[in-house]
Amino acid sequence: MKLAYWMYAGPAHIGTLRIASSFKNVHAIMHAPLGDDYFNVMRSMLERERDFTPVTASVVDRNVLARGSQEKVVDNITRKDREESPDLIVLTPTCTSSILQEDLQNFVDRAQLDARGDVLLADVNHYRVNELQAGDRTLQQIVQFYLEKARKKGDLPTEKTAKPSVNIIGISTLGFHNQHDCTELKRLMSDLGIEVNEVIPEGASVHNLKNLPQAWFNLVPYRELGLMTAQYLEQEFGMPCVDITPMGVVETARCIRKIQQLLNAQGAGVDYEEYIDHQTRHVSQAAWFSRSIDCQNLTGKKAVVFGDNTHAAAMTKILAREMGIHVVLAGTYCKYDADWFKAQVSEYCDEVLISDDNGAIGDAIARLEPAAIFGTQMERHIGKRLNIPCGVIAAPIHIQNFPIGYRPFLGYEGTNQVADLVYNSFTLGMEDHLLEIFGGHDTKEVITKGMSADSDLNWTKEAQATLNQVPGFVRGKVKRNTEKFARERGLSEISLEVFYAAKEAVGA
Question: Which residues are catalytic, by number?
């Protein structure tokens, strides 16, 4: 265990709460001390929704520690059941409350005796899994609970729908552009003549989960959420799954062809080649843009990509394969799924970085000096410090990445949005020189050797003035080389003489 001031994936209970609060009329109760109950603030601040079901905290305090939690937890569950009449109450501990080693399943069983709705304990190991893994497991657990319940009652429809249909699995609150992606996926399915059977968990009712087996196949657009559910449905009901993320022109076409293959295996007799050709040529502007003079100006430029598995892998392929951009490093913080990520990106980049240490990622970016970064909110902060532009492509994200306007990343409209993001993330043409002419370049003094190293070197007034005369597009590199030269020689101050000595040493 280590102390960190930045987490790419939150603790396990956040994943469980994301799933519970995505469903309609599902209430989550968190068994936690004060301080762990920040989910409501995060949810209400980031998601632009008119209303949502808030999470209740069953607070662990000194009285609970002295007497035990059972009566308090059971009382909170039964009280919420009376007040809100939820279809389901999900009880989850947090890392801190798990230390108590209480039998929460016993609490749930006791509460279920008096509750009118269902009560379920989130079955995740809070010490071993993170937010993404816990969310994946919680969704699978809820789906399994209601399918088994319907089966016991003899109320489980198993006949397929008359027309080809799909379950879209993994659309969640607090997901990166999830609502926009869902709209685009529904539009794509409609174009293909496929009915949407269910979308889970966002906006779904647990009462409709029994209808999941009626779909012809499952679509899991994000690797982080939904695969466990799709695997369960495949094992229990033989339902095929498409887990290709339709992000970028090439992968969207590959996803559609996989859907075509699965439908035809079930006797549908569909042919989507003409649709793919039309969308690629006339609806998506990305294919045209990649051949334009504007995009050709980006050919060979260096980029670093970092994020969750889904978006980092997809963006790496788009940059390298569709736009001719040189990806010097592709990385992910999903360490638990490292093998898949390496297999996806290795042929499209120079280096692969699997880490959740933002300091190591910052140092790698400083060392590689890319022309642009495509990452999370943290990489955007790193980019500001290094004067490198950054396009945000994955969670964790800032409120500005929950746009009101329509900005999907998936499907053919998503290809346009991604192309715009890529192009606008690079510093183009005379931009640096115009910044120098008109001023306002407020980040030029904060570049350091690496993000995790202290910038304790003092520049004399004369040396700083000389550095400022260096053109903006190479000033960062000159400063880093000079500071590296000084550190290697144990110098704490960079004078004009040191500056020229460093310049001579690198042959500049």
Answer: 294
